[in-house]
## 1
Amino acid sequence: MKIAVIGGGASGLTAAIAAARNGSEVAIYEKLNKVGKKILATGNGRCNYTNMNLSIDKYHGKNTKLAENILEFFDLKRTLNFFEDLGINPYIGDQGKVYPGSLQASSVLDVLRYEVERLNVGEVTEFEVLELRKNKDKFSIIGRDSVHYADKVILATGGKASPQLGSDGKGFEIASSLGHRIINTFPALVQLKLNGKFFKRIAGIRFDGVVKGFTDKKVIREEDGEILFTEYGISGPPILQISRMIVEELNKNHRVYISVDMFPQISKFDLYDILNTRFNKIGYKSIGDGLIGFINKKLIPVILTEAGFENFDKKCGKLNKKEIYKIIDILKDWKFEVTDHNSWQQAQATAGGVDMSEVNSNTLESLKVKGLFLAGEILDVDGDCGGFNLQWAWSSGYAAGHFSSTLV
Ligand SMILES: Cc1cc2nc3c(=O)[nH]c(=O)nc-3n(C[C@H](O)[C@H](O)[C@H](O)COP(=O)(O)OP(=O)(O)OC[C@H]3O[C@@H](n4cnc5c(N)ncnc54)[C@H](O)[C@@H]3O)c2cc1C
């Protein structure tokens, strides 16, 4: 049986391996000049390929529950074994994030490519699939200059996140042309643009903090970790983590805010004691100088302005309790309005995609077109930051590859 895998990303490579291991003749059709380019960019070049705390709660989408069988079929244990068999020794970092022992994303791609080669999987690169048709029992895979044929097809073209790495949403057009419904897509795991004129001055400052997203009506989500101010607003793992829900609210035209706590380990009460003692000790210094050594120097004028101070020459010893608390309110509860999010270009995942209720939730075969399977980010399943998106790519890829090559 001939199986065509459209898209040579994380899910397509795993699908090809699974199908070829079952004895099928497999070819991968990849638009770029090499397969797996996105894998190289993952985890800041270290590839956070799964997470020890895998559970369905880490995933989002309209019918996320339908992803559960697939995540159980090719679960964490099977994923770790799959990669160990290929030579990847797992290294477990913070929050259960799993990386290759080499801390090199290229090793993950290398071992997948060796396996693809060992199994004689065909790689047709620089072949953009423009159209997919089914006539009787055969699929036609139509490119710019040629047409290829297959008995079964696995559509693994990814979503729209980071189109410079190949995934530009073409897969949605193909799926839609075959009768699939696409749940509204938007960038997930993306940086946020914030209201404020001072971001250019504080860009590059990092700290371990807590961020909370909220609207006028509810708290959306709270996360901790390394936060980074940027020229446009804010970034860092906790920001990416809360971004999906924030973008969802922005899309509903709701006003959305975030609050940042730069001293999550210290209560407001204790922070008052610390600052009060400090300011008494250096009462002769101006407040502009009095915070040097306590917070990043570039932040001082911005924080004092935000706290309502106009005169930074005022002596530390002259600050009253109310004024110290004004500084503390910014340090522990700095509020910003979210004006927008970064574009698809900077996003790491796609929310939305092919409706999970239109595929068999055990095999990922399309319920619209027999013999067509879907895998990876093209489906309406997106995970939290921390290895969950690649896990979905491996699990869904392996399932699609396995069932396409075993089901009649
Ligand atoms: C910068 C960055 C960092 C990330 N870091 C992590 C991380 O550390 N951990 C984690 O879990 N997730 C991470 N992710 C998310 C993760 O990489 C993706 O969810 C995952 O790669 C999706 O796999 P996929 O196979 O479905 O799609 P993709 O990896 O996007 O692969 C799709 C492939 O299909 C090809 N293609 C598209 N259209 C066509 C067509 N018409 N014809 C032929 N080929 C086509 C593309 O060129 C591409 O090679 C990161 C993403 C980015 C952008």
## 2
Amino acid sequence: MFNFHTHHTDDVPCILNCSPDDFLLRQDHERADVAFSVGLHPWNVSADWQEKVEKMRSVTTSPRVWTIGECGLDKVRGDALSVQIEAFRAQIAIAEAVKKPMVIHCVKAFDELLALRKELTEQCHREGRAAQPWVIHGFRGKPEQAKQMMAKGLLLSFCHLYHVETLRLVFSLYKNASAEEGRSRVSPFFLETDDHPFSVHQIYEQVSHHLGVDVSLLDSLCDPRQTIFHQKAF
Ligand SMILES: [Zn+2]
């Protein structure tokens, strides 16, 4: 079992979301199976965002930092979208420099997100390298939107608030792909608690119920250490 995105640790291996300052305070005190994600949340983007992102540079090279984020775009809350885009672009550049996946918060700004992804993949293509994976965390979109995101190579992570039909579609797309290609290289989705006060065990149980599969199957499918982290161990 693995909690892909959380703001509190429990007894499960996880990626704990932190600001750069939090990371420096907590890195030596958390269990060995706690990895970190460091970034500037779009709600916290303000006039001094450059200073905050600058702090990320040295911290994100730490081997304990596995992902960059959560960062992204939010049209409902936070500073002007144009400022959020600038701060997000700066963090994309950091993720590419340190070669780590991104954990993305996106609310009502999926067109802008896809445009930025396209810009990045084109740039990487010109430079002859692959772009780092982007995972949209807490995805609550409908099946059509999930399909659109996956078609552009984006990955999804679900907390307990997912759309059940979306979960079923994502799982069936994965199953079809693995039937054709053998074991698919990429995990179908990840599971997380985000900042909700319960255990990721409950999310695994809920997903297992909705998909009609054993939790043990989800344990391997939803473990990012088997996929985007290339067998990375704690
Ligand atoms: Zn979060």
